[in-house]
């Protein structure tokens, strides 16, 4: 009996031990596999972790007609491809939003002051900044952020409102408008 079959049979006896063995057996290999596709170690960690969580939460081990190894590698492959598509989509929206805004501003108002924006973002409290970046840069929905951080969706909404208020007060008008337009355009297309 191979390692995959051993793990699947162990799921029938002790799910926690089986999952631990599954993780110990495949985690590093899956991480290398995902990183090879993404060329981003942090994104690869997230993809693999999410696949393990999905496997456990949705009890995928209960029905694997093509076997464990094929399932987990396919799962990571599809998750990595989805991540790449999401990144491509976010970059496309970002570029389109920035181009649209620049067309509407005068030539001397079009300077995107990255330094001022980063400085203002770094002045946000850590949790608020984390929520803001997950939504605005990673394109996550409020509900996804709430679930990932294990907080209520109302807390996410409140923190986003406070972030925008702070940034509006802190940034020059054209920088804040560009940031806000980018955010609203991305939210509409997601």
UniProtKB/TrEMBL annotation:
Residues 22-90 form the RNA polymerase sigma-70 region domain. The keyword Transcription applies. The keyword Chaperone does not apply. Keywords: Sigma factor, Transcription, Transcription regulation. This is RNA polymerase sigma-70 factor. Coiled coil: none annotated. Pfam families: Sigma70_r2, Sigma70_r4_2. It comes from Butyricimonas hominis. Residues 115-167 form the RNA polymerase sigma factor 70 region 4 type domain. Belongs to the sigma-70 factor family. ECF subfamily. Transmembrane segments: none annotated.
